[in-house]
Design brief:
Layout: H1 2-19, H2 26-38, H3 42-64, H4 68-88, H5 97-117
Helix pairs in contact: 3-4
Length: 124
């Protein structure tokens, strides 16, 4: 009876992943882990926002006191924190609307140039 139970358990262990639609390949599992590691917890994003605000105030204060070395260091720290924020908290990074408008203009210009240089054969 115990040998039968062992064989049944072994069959279940071997066949269960194949029967499950939820099983992941190793590549999918690695991708999910990378996404989880890349995104930050909301508390970390909040901490980064507070630090950026604090160092920005210190940067402004250093400018008021005309302390060049302090201002440079605080500016560097703000840039480091903004880089971390951009990498870890993509929802917190401000959108550059001017860059988006310029990109749209370039797309429109490329379509016009393609139509012009192909004598309308591109269908734009």
């Amino acid at each position: 009876m115990s040998a039968r139970l062992v064989l049944l358990m072994l069959a279940l262990v071997c066949l269960a992943p194949a029967a499950s639609a939820q099983s992941l390949t190793s590549e999918e599992a690695q991708e999910l882990l990378a996404q989880r590691e890349a995104s930050a917890h909301p508390a970390e994003c909040s901490r980064l926002r507070r630090q950026i605000d604090q160092y920005t105030l210190m940067f402004e204060r250093a400018g008021e006191l005309q302390n060049q070395m302090w201002a440079e260091r605080m500016g560097e720290q703000v840039e480091i924190l903004r880089g971390l924020q951009a990498a870890r908290c993509p929802n917190d990074v401000p959108i550059d609307h001017a860059a988006e408008a310029f990109a749209e203009m370039l797309k429109l210009a490329a379509k016009g140039a393609a139509a012009y240089f192909t004598f309308g054969a591109t269908g734009f």
